[in-house]
Amino acid sequence: MTQPVRPMTGRAPAAVPDGMVLIPGGRLTMGSSDGYPEEAPVHEVTVGAFAMDIHPVTNREYRAFCNETGRTRPEPPRWPEMPDYFVRYPDHPAVNINYDDAAAYAEWTGKRLPTEAEWEFAARGGREATTFAWGDDAPGGHRAQFATRDVNIPWRDPLIATGWRYTAPTGSFPPNGYGLHDMAGNVWEWCDNWFYRYPWEDLDPRRVEEGWGLQRVVRGGAWYSPAQDLRVSRRLRVHGGTGGNGTGFRCVLDVLPEEERSLTAPHLPPKRPTDPATFDDVIAANPRQLRSGVELCLGVSPDLTDAEAVRIRNLGFTSVEQYVHWGSVENDGEGQFDFSHWDAQVETIKRQGLKWVPFLIAGPAYSLPDWFRESRGHIGAVCLEHRLPSKIQSIFDRSFDR
User: Are 16 and 255 in contact (CB under 8 A)?
Assistant: First the structure.
């Protein structure tokens, strides 16, 4: 039988704004011994009270932020069935949001992003040791938006349907015990942590290690995720500059006085182990340089900013590699090439004294341009058991046997 999370006692919190719910704070067992290695070891955490958005930030909400601040709108996902997604689907979660975008929005609203501990505490909905936000039962087709047969991805579950091919409108599924919607599926949600292995040891900002300053944490799973990625303990490490079409966020708000917020156990990290600027200052003051004749290349996201390029250079890399998908240069029609995105990326990279290494991809499902996938020349693989087509081209596709 599921045990309730042990609540904290103390001063009553401040009033909670509309669109948010109070998470009372308390102690719970975080992580899982049955999941991926990064979810272990299981350990106890203590979280102070806070308020959390009832659902992920929507297109409507994020559009208001862009309109008022002048921030660039997120790149619309290439979903033929949902054109002009950012404008025409206001109640769906905003996607293609990177960490900086999410943090800027949170600051604009007077809120912040949740820590990992806060996110998992809230996702459990007042219960401890559950697999999902609703309990231990599999999601089925009525609890979350994930990779069901409606979603055209190879690993979809052919026996379950939700009715949506991509994201679902926020609040389309029942809330958890705290009244929070979409804590599983729909979009991965940014947390305000660098990725560290539990129990977050060696928090020395002077140390440049794998993960430090380069990878953040997202939680919850997305519309394209298999069911195992919807578990409350699942944590994914993602480059902070990457905001894919399954990445969004929600915000939290402190509701206790400053002196009562530090309720985490001594072995836990502060809510932000380090500020990005602090990390950049450290590596800028101590840039790494390789000896003459040595080259070091780093694979990066397709949306590299100047600040990220400076960070990569200061870490000692001499070049960056980016996956150049066929669909990113010839998606509007056969022979209609557009290299503007990559031209801009090359200029960003060159400005910081780095070299560009393109990794050209023509075959996999995620690289094919829309015009080719919809043409008679494309022969997709078909699941022999369920007779469901796939975006991945078949080995019998003659367009790829040359």
Answer: yes
Classify 314 as helix, strand or coil.
helix
Q: What is the pTM of this model?
A: 0.69
Rounded distance between C-alpha atoms, residue 86 and residue 46, angstroms? 37
pLDDT tens digits for 115-144? 999 999 999 999 888 899 999 999 999 999
| 400 or 25, which is more confident | 25
Pairing of strands 297-299, 319-325: parallel
CB 133 within 8 A of CB 125: yes
Closest Cα partner for 311 from 238, 240, 218, 237?
240
Q: pLDDT digits over 19-64, tens only?
A: 999 999 898 899 999 999 999 999 988 889 999 999 999 999 999 9
Which amino acid appears at position 13 of this protein?
Answer: P
Cβ–Cβ under 8 Å, residues 316 and 289: yes
CA dihedral in degrees (124, 129, 131, 134; nearest 10)? Answer: -40
Q: Give the integer Cα–Cα distance in Å for 394 and 396.
A: 5
**What count of Cα atoms within 13 Å lies in the side-chain half-sphere of residue 11?**
11
Closest listed residue to residue 124, CA positions, set 43, 29, 261: 29
Query: What three-state secondary structure class fits 277?
Result: helix
DSSP letters spanning 188-215: EEEEEEE---TTT----TT---TTTTTE
- List beta partners, residue 380: 393
